[in-house]
Amino acid sequence: MPKELALSLVDIWFQDEARLGQQGTLSRVWAMTGTRPRLQKQLQYNYSYIFGAICPQKKQSVGLILPLVNTEAMQMHLDEISKYVEQGRHAVIVVDKAAWHTTGKLNLPDNISLLPLPATSPELNPVEQVWSWIRQHSLANRAFKDYEEIVDEACKAWNIFANKSDLIASIGSRSWAIL
Predict the structure, then answer these.
(1) Contacts of 53 (CB under 8 A, 6+ apart)
(2) Domains of the chain from N-terminus onward
(3) pLDDT per residue over 8-28, tens digit each?
(4) What is the pTM assigned to this prediction?
(5) What is the mean pLDDT of the chain?
(6) In this structure, are residues 96 and 125 in contact, taking their beta carbons and an 8 Å threshold?
């Protein structure tokens, strides 16, 4: 198979995880000049995690809300991403060097390969901007009563983002990530 044809059958995905919960993000808010609005900051420690992946070229995203970050959770996410890779295509998933990304215990689906980023270089992964967007537009300045509400709101926030295909392409596109 010619090299050009082989490269045209590869999709680049970016993957990462984000913790969401009762120790949430405080963000700027609009207020009348001279006023100091009060925002609530929780002190409880209930969390959930969004495992998210985007393919800017295809304007696709795949996300799971899970209670833990570990090898088993990563395996579940890779298996889910694999379902979204078109028949006959291959996904190269750019990941950071977290232990659950680089472990030999992962059973990679046949249509997926992992490409680790250099150590301490989160700025190279556009999913970091996805987390920023989700927090800013859906989850900042929030208080959650319990774990179930955290999961429900994380699902809503991910789905709002995932339904914006042009935003996925805009946030995720990188000039160095084109085959």
Answers:
(1) 13, 14, 15, 16, 61, 62, 63, 77, 81, 93, 127
(2) 3-22+42-177 (3.30.420.10)
(3) 799 999 999 998 874 545 555
(4) 0.82
(5) 85
(6) yes
